[in-house]
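Long-time lurker. I teach an intro course on protein structure, and each term I like to show students one example going from raw sequence to a predicted 3D structure in token notation. This year I'd like something fresh instead of my usual example. Would anyone be willing to generate the tokens for the chain below so I can use it in lecture? Attribution to the forum is fine with me.
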Amino acid sequence: MKPAATSSTALQVWWFGGSESNEVNNQGDDSCELVAVRIERTSANSRRIAGEITVPAAMESVWSILTDYDRLAIHVPNLMESRITQRNGPGSAGDGKFRCRLFQKGAQKIIGFDFSASVTMDMTERLISSGERCIDFKCVDSQFFNTFDGRWTVKEQAGPTGEPETVCSYTVDVRPKGPVPVAALEWRIREDVPTNLRAVKAATAKIDAPTTLPLAAKSLASIQGGGANGAVASSRLGRVLDWDRDETMAKYL
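-- Reply from a regular --
Happy to contribute to a lecture. Here you go:
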């Protein structure tokens, strides 16, 4: 950990998630990837927590994970439930203009006690530019949070080899409700943010894996009677439908 106060708001940077060892990285173990978590004390009882990770994939692939709202619990181990309860406009998830109300319920431990937090949020997708998109979320109902508002952002750029890569960032403003101290939530969330970001990276790598996707897409197209052209047209859908529901990868709340 490397705390560093840089302003009157007591900004701190903590490094979580593994080792800078080349031996670890050469094994391709992304679960050990270091992720910087920035914590800002915005008031006596509130915090802003943020982090980011670089995903070696096109923005569209990362975006497809983040906007798979009804199936996010597949990727997040401590997320027990995620479901759209209301659509707040036309369109469909992932189109860059979609708005919905999302209910999520997670389970985690805080100070040794089981803490089952639920939150209902309004989600708003935005197209910032041709290479950048975001999802704003705002808490509208929660037994545990007065504030749980933030943003997911994905921004595509050229990687070291010229191939596209995506910087995926997450920021959340948190203020608890009731007896839960903000320090306990800060500790919990600052550990969960790196896990969540690494999960997005792992899920993206899985849907983009060339050894599995052609078969999955071809199988789906065959069922739909689409042949080879159907496999290409349905590859994105096939990637979503063929995910194993028993897979868990990260933390969302």
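Some talking points for your students: Residues 138 and 149 are 4 Å apart (CA to CA). Residues 1-8, 18-28, 211-253 have pLDDT under 50 and may be disordered.
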